[in-house]
Each structure stands twice: as structure tokens, then as C-alpha cells.
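Dear H.,

Thanks for agreeing to be a second pair of eyes. The structure we're designing against is below in C-alpha cell form, covering all 418 positions.
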């Protein structure tokens, strides 16, 4: 019944090393069949299977009016819905395609903005850290920074109007609600059994925060104070399409969460690793000083010249991916291309309704893909031709049609503080 796996998970959870505890087993067995409470599930870290699930047999592309592709979100939607509502992280098929197209247009607009948008927020971050004494926990400061930059890019400074306590309450509520959602996802179809009052209150706080921006944008539109071409274009465009303030709010929750958490976690891991690898830190400082002498401000065209910084960020995303584990459910009986047979190279039959988990965290640490030092921080592996054919073996921003819309935005925001 695989009760030993469940016990092992909950024994390791307090140490926050759940993923690392399975590394040795998964490196030896990149494809697993798991029997739990009479149900059959699968786990894979093979790039060929991930490409098949996320691209070749992608769930969002409707093959015809009567037939859909092989994979979907399954119980993930119900597990996440109280927090996120309707949006790209909770939708399949045509609703997902509609939401993604709505947001894609906005990210095209954002990608053309220059880096001056971040100046004040970078200055606030550096000033706050400089005035601190003793040991400083960087991560809370990074989360405040990324929330501020996300708000500025998407909604404009004028859309703020919130006190610091309200921003902090949003962060605390989201962090707690995310933790509960992680438990609900593990419960799969039994997610309804775990919905504590504190979780419901946290979800309400998150939605109230996002709803504030919708309310402000619509109010200013009604009095003619905010032209459509202004900083609140995202909200007004979404409302014109959806004609429902709650649906617009849900879309904003998805964007806020993606913009805040991914960048803050990447920044935290980057600084964590650099202070432990002084040679890499010194080389990065030399590169920055060569491109930006005398403390000049970074301009967008100079981003491409910071080649070693890109190597460092790739290495951080490899070791600590933003979405380390995910799952898809078979919408019909289908196949994974590899994992079966004595040599593991034959297809595997996946019956309708079965879940297939995939671990980007473990795939990024497979010695068969990254060498014997796969667990080590070595940015230089991204120089030259060593990984030029890594393909689906490197998935920092997911992959296929669902690849992260904000990947270019993430690159803009993470460089400023460095």
C-alpha cells in the first residue's frame, strides 16, 4: 500500500528536506510505478516523458470538437481553486487558452518597459538592508521588493493606495494559504476534507487585496481619471473582455502570485549560494564592474552582456527550480514513451484517471544529464557546449504551450538588486 512512502514523507517534512531525501532513489530509478491505497500512480524524471506530457500530448490543444488531448490538471484544480479562482493555473482546454491569451498581451507590453521602473524599489531595498544591524534575513525583504515591483509594472504606482500592513497581510495570508493548498493537493480527490477556517480567511484576504486594484481601476475609469493607455491597462483590458470584476480579480491573483514568489525565491537562493561560493561572487562583481563602471545604472541593452550572471541564474534555477514537483492526470488511456520493459526504454500504458507526477528538482540533479557533480553549484557548466543539447532536461520555466509567460519579466526583476 506504500504506507512506508507516506510515513517517510511526513517524517521528513519538519526538516524541510523532503525532495532531497528522495534524490538517491530517483537518480537510480527515473521512472517509478507507485501503488497507494489500491490506486496506481507514476513518477518520472525522464525528459522524454516530460516533453510528451507537456508538449506532444498537451492538454490545452483541443484535437477536435469531440476529442481532447491526453493530459489535464485533474484534482489540482479543486485543490487550488479556493485560493486562486479562475485562471491559467487552474484551467484546462479552451478556458485556459482564453486566459493565457488575455495575459499574454499584457506581458508583451511589460517586456518593452525599461529598467527605470525598478529604480525606486531597488533603492528602497538597498537602503533598508544597509540600515539593518546584525544578522539580516534577506528573504522577507525580497518578497516585499518583488511584490512592489509586480504592482508597479502591472498596476502602476497610482493603483497602490494600500498601507504597508495590508501588503504584509497579503504576503502572510498567501504563504499560509499556499501551505494548506500543498496539503490539499496531496489529498487529491479528498481535498474537500481539509479546508480549515484559517485557510478560508487567508484566501479572502488574498482576494480582497487583488480586488482593491480592480475597484480602483474601475472607479478611476468611471470618472475619466485614468485613460486606457495608462498604467492600469491590464485591469481595464481584462474587464472589457470578461465583464466581471470577480473574474478579473482571480486573474490578478494568478499574476501577483507568479510575480512575487518566483522572483523572490530565485533572489534568495542566488544570494544564499553566492556568499558560500566567493570565487563565483568575485567573478560576478568583476563582470558587473566591467560593464557598469563607476556604479552606472543598468540599461536594458546591457542585460545580454552579463553572461556570467546568466550562468549563475541558470545554475540556481537548475538546483532550486521554482516549481520543483508537479502532476498531470490522464484524461484518457494513453502512453508514456519510456519507462517500461526491463531496460526502461519501452512505453508505459497509463490508464484513464491515473496521475503522473514529474519532478523537475530531481531531473535537474540527474547525474546522467549533468554529470557526477550534478548536486554541486558550478555556473561554469553553462558556458561553452557542455549543455547545448540539454533540451527538456532543463525546465526552469515549465515547458510546452504552458511555458511561463513572465520568464522575461523575471529576468528583468532579478537583475536589479544584484
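And this is the sequence the design step returned. I haven't edited it by hand at all.
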Amino acid at each position: 500500500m506504500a504506507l512506508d512512502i507516506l510515513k517517510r514523507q511526513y517524517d521528513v517534512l519538519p526538516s524541510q528536506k523532503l525532495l532531497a531525501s528522495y534524490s538517491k532513489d530517483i537518480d537510480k530509478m527515473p521512472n517509478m510505478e507507485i501503488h497507494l491505497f489500491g490506486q496506481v500512480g507514476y513518477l518520472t524524471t525522464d525528459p522524454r516523458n516530460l516533453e510528451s506530457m507537456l508538449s506532444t500530448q498537451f492538454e490545452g490543444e483541443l484535437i477536435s470538437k469531440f476529442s481532447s488531448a491526453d493530459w489535464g490538471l485533474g484534482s489540482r484544480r479543486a485543490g487550488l481553486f479556493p485560493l486562486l479562482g479562475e485562471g491559467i493555473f487552474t484551467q484546462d482546454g479552451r478556458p485556459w487558452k482564453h486566459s493565457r491569451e488575455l495575459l499574454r498581451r499584457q506581458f508583451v507590453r511589460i517586456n518593452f518597459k525599461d529598467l527605470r521602473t525598478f529604480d525606486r524599489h531597488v533603492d528602497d531595498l538597498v537602503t533598508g538592508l544597509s540600515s539593518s544591524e546584525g544578522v539580516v534575513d534577506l528573504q522577507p525583504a525580497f518578497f516585499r521588493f518583488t511584490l512592489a515591483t509586480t504592482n508597479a509594472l502591472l498596476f502602476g504606482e497610482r493603483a497602490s493606495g494600500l498601507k504597508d500592513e495590508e501588503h504584509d497581510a497579503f504576503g502572510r495570508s498567501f504563504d499560509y494559504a499556499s501551505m494548506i493548498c500543498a496539503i490539499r493537493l496531496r489529498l487529491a480527490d479528498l481535498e474537500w476534507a481539509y479546508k480549515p477556517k484559517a485557510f478560508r480567511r487567508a484566501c479572502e484576504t488574498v482576494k480582497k487585496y487583488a480586488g482593491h486594484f480592480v475597484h480602483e481601476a474601475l472607479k478611476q475609469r468611471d470618472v475619466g481619471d485614468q485613460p486606457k493607455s495608462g498604467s492600469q491597462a491590464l485591469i481595464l483590458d481584462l474587464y472589457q473582455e470578461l465583464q466581471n470584476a470577480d473574474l478579473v480579480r482571480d486573474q490578478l491573483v494568478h499574476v501577483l502570485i507568479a510575480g512575487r514568489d518566483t522572483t523572490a525565491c530565485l533572489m534568495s537562493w542566488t544570494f544564499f549560494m553566492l556568499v558560500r561560493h566567493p570565487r563565483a561572487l568575485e567573478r560576478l562583481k568583476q563582470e558587473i564592474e566591467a560593464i557598469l563602471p563607476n556604479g552606472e545604472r543598468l540599461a536594458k541593452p546591457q542585460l545580454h552582456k552579463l553572461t556570467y550572471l546568466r550562468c549563475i541564474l541558470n545554475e540556481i534555477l537548475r538546483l532550486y527550480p521554482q516549481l520543483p514537483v508537479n502532476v498531470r492526470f490522464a484524461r484518457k488511456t494513453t502512453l508514456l514513451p519510456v519507462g517500461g520493459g526491463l531496460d526502461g526504454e519501452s512505453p508505459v500504458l497509463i490508464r484513464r484517471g491515473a496521475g503522473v507526477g514529474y519532478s523537475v528538482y530531481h531531473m535537474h540533479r540527474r547525474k546522467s544529464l549533468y554529470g557526477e557533480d550534478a548536486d554541486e553549484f558550478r555556473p561554469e557548466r553553462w558556458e561553452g557546449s557542455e549543455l547545448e543539447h540539454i533540451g527538456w532536461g532543463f525546465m526552469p520555466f515549465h515547458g510546452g504551450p504552458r511555458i511561463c509567460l513572465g520568464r522575461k519579466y523575471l529576468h528583468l526583476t532579478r537583475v536589479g538588486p544584484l
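Two observations from my side: Residues 5 and 36 are 9 Å apart (CA to CA). The beta strands are 31-36, 39-44, 71-72, 325-330, 334-340, 346-350, 355-359.

Warmly,
E.
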